[in-house]
Write a structure and sequence with these properties.
There is one protein chain. Helices cover 45% and strands 14% of the residues. By secondary structure, it is an alpha/beta fold. The relative contact order is 0.14. The mean pLDDT is 95.
Length: 253
């Protein structure tokens, strides 16, 4: 049965691969991005987030079956806070009423194995407090700590929200995936040099098969967003070539 999906960050990388897979299976995909999308919106601004919700509502007549909140940035700039955390929450919360009207509704976000790396607690805490201005201010000068902090905050939000009446109580599984290093336009600059690859390999050891592809992550996203997922909720599922187990060992409880 064909379903209606929304994918943010649909113009490239993991989002584009996921959209292509779903469309190839006969599903309807409403892509959201800052360019080359069905709904063009900038999730770094309140106005762009509102435009995203309005555009999706008009495109789907108020009924969605799944939301994949994939849009994100990996730049050492406070703008990353606005997109990765507050843009993702605006997507999940803003589209949740449309999911509640759908069939076998599902929601999933793209986080990162970077949640295991160095973080800045002030960024994480401000995000979870819902204070965007404070989170952006906390990110000033934090450079490489920003990305992982936004993804940790998003993963914690998902854990907290998944079992609530608005999500589990409404029959909507809410999950996230945690990719390792994936060969996409976002990671291309880092992987283009030997020095960059050494830095990445030290931070993200991936003994199973090396760097991943967008298609591999798309497979997991599609399953989590499908009717086949009936019992998995509140989880951050690592798809990282083993980096989680190398970095944490058996410390999973």
């Amino acid at each position: 049965m064909a379903r209606t999906y929304v994918i943010t960050g649909s113009a490239s990388g993991i989002g584009a691969a996921t959209a292509a897979k779903l469309r190839g299976e006969g599903h309807r995909v409403i892509g959201v991005d800052v360019h080359d999308a069905d709904v063009v919106a900038d999730l770094s601004t309140p106005e762009g987030r509102a435009a995203m919700v309005d555009g999706v509502r008009a495109a789907c007549d108020g009924v969605l079956d799944a939301v994949i909140a994939n849009a994100g940035l990996a730049i050492p700039d406070p703008l990353t806070v606005r997109v990765n955390y507050f843009g993702a929450l605006a997507t999940l919360d803003g589209l949740r009423p449309m999911l509640a009207a759908g069939t076998d509704p599902r929601a999933v976000a793209t986080c990162s194995m970077a949640v295991l790396g160095p973080l800045d607690d002030s960024i994480v805490d401000a995000c979870l407090a819902g204070d965007e201005d404070a989170a952006v201010a906390a990110a000033e000068g934090k450079d490489m700590l920003i990305y992982g902090s936004t993804k940790r905050a998003l993963a914690r939000w998902i854990r907290r929200q998944a079992p609530t009446p608005e999500w589990a109580g409404a029959g909507i599984p809410l999950n996230a995936v945690g990719p390792g290093v994936i060969e996409t336009p976002m990671t291309a600059p880092l992987l283009a040099t030997e020095e960059g690859r050494h830095l990445i390999d030290d931070a993200v050891p991936m003994p199973l098969g090396g760097y991943g592809t967008a298609d591999e992550v798309a497979e997991l996203l599609c399953w989590l967003a499908s009717p086949a997922n009936t019992m998995t909720t509140g989880q951050l599922i690592f798809i990282d070539g083993g980096s989680d187990v190398v970095l944490r060992g058996d410390d999973i409880w």
